[in-house]
């Protein structure tokens, strides 16, 4: 037996778009057109948390301290509902500044979460037919 060396076509290594893995992966979820395009949905909110607790979790957004216990966050996502959920993960009082689509998404998400807490039987509990 002798080992076989691959004889098929080779490829040329190229530079990773964006320069690093994090930028490349993040850009796949944004409107990537070869530029530094922003998320399709961007919003702003005030969080009742110190900026130091928010900064590590808003990777490509902006956080502005508004005193020792509050900050303003501007960030984006691929949908308004995803943006509302991402702001909700902070488990703090949230004051949405805008745009109008963001508080609407927060209300939609709140209704979905409220419905998830009902005591009605879940479809998983239904007997097989």
- At the first level of CATH, the class of the domain at 37-116 is Alpha Beta
Through-space gap between termini: 59 Å
Beta-strand residue fraction: 15-25%
Order of helices and strands: HEHEEHEH
Report on the structure:
The chain is an alpha+beta fold and 129 residues long. It has a domain at 37-116: 2-Layer Sandwich (Alpha-Beta Plaits), CATH 3.30.70. The chain contains four helices and four strands. It has helices at 21-29, 51-54, 80-88, 101-116; strands at 41-47, 62-65, 71-77, 94-98. Strand 2 (62-65) and strand 3 form a beta hairpin.
Give structural attributes.
alpha+beta; extended; 4 strands; 4 helices; four-stranded antiparallel beta sheet; 29% helix
Brief account:
The chain has 129 residues and is of the alpha+beta class. 29% of the residues lie in helices and 18% in strands. The chain has a domain of 80 residues: Alpha-Beta Plaits (2-Layer Sandwich).
Task: Please specify the SSE layout and strand pairing.
Layout: H1 21-29, E1 41-47, H2 51-54, E2 62-65, E3 71-77, H3 80-88, E4 94-98, H4 101-116
Antiparallel strand pairs: 1-3, 1-4, 2-3
Helix pairs in contact: 3-4
């Amino acid at each position: 037996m002798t080992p076989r060396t691959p004889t098929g076509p080779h490829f040329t290594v190229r530079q990773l778009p964006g320069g690093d893995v994090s930028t490349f992966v993040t850009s796949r979820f944004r409107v990537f057109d070869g530029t530094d395009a922003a998320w399709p949905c961007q919003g702003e909110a005030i969080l009742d948390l110190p900026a130091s607790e928010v900064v590590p979790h808003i990777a490509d957004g902006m956080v502005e301290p508004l005193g020792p216990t509050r900050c303003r966050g501007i960030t984006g996502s691929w949908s308004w509902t995803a943006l509302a959920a991402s702001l909700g993960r902070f488990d703090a009082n949230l004051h949405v500044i805008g745009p109008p689509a963001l508080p609407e998404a927060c209300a939609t998400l709140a209704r979905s979460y409220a419905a998830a807490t009902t005591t009605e039987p879940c479809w998983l509990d239904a007997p097989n037919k």
